[in-house]
Design brief:
single chain, alpha+beta, 3-stranded antiparallel β-sheet, 7 helices
């Protein structure tokens, strides 16, 4: 549920693992807030860094995060993320057609590690969406809202989808809720 920066990559991962995915996107097209963002990602030890003489490691980045977080960082999650950014984000996105073009300084980091994709978030999401659209085991349904989760014996087994004022049931082994949409909901924006 959701065709943005979390939903599209989730569908790609499912398809690459041999499964089938259905993406429900309420808007006319996929991309979500990620498509209008700067698209920057904190990534460690990349070829782009090395091309500029920057030697970066997950250990150095972890030290920066922990210091900057002032004790509030989830250290297990931070360590995992930093150790996997090179292959699971940088190269993965490149394999989907994204191109990392430059880096910028981000507070709390001793070195440049905030990577920007070509054409910002729109460029990153366009590459990911094209990848998803090219995969025969992914079906993208835009202009389709998610209704309620379907359950059986206390387990989620699908979701209802509303398209053209018609409700359909979609059954699945798993449902990933990857929705955002808060930026177009003024009440939610003001609440934050």
């Amino acid at each position: 549920i959701g065709g943005g920066g979390a939903g599209i990559p989730a569908a790609i991962e499912v398809a690459q693992a041999g499964g089938s995915a259905v993406v429900l996107e309420q808007a006319e097209e996929c991309g979500g807030t990620a498509a209008i963002s700067g698209g920057g990602c904190c990534i460690v030890g990349t070829p782009l860094q090395k091309s500029q003489g920057i030697e970066d490691t997950p250990d150095l980045a972890f030290e920066d995060w922990i210091k900057w977080g002032g004790g509030s960082a989830d250290e297990v999650w931070a360590r995992y993320y930093l150790e996997h950014t090179l292959h699971d984000l940088y190269y993965w996105a490149e394999n989907c057609g994204a191109k990392w073009v430059d880096m910028k300084f981000q507070e709390g980091n001793r070195v440049l590690r905030w990577h920007r994709p070509e054409n910002n978030g729109l460029g990153l999401m366009t590459a990911l969406i094209k990848t998803a659209e090219s995969m025969p085991n992914i079906k993208i349904m835009t202009d389709t809202g998610a209704g309620k989760l379907l359950t059986k014996n206390g387990r989620v087994i699908g979701v209802t989808a509303i398209r053209n004022n018609e409700t359909v049931e979609i059954f699945s082994k798993a449902v990933v809720v990857a929705t955002g949409g808060f930026n177009s909901n003024l009440d939610m924006v003001l609440e934050v």
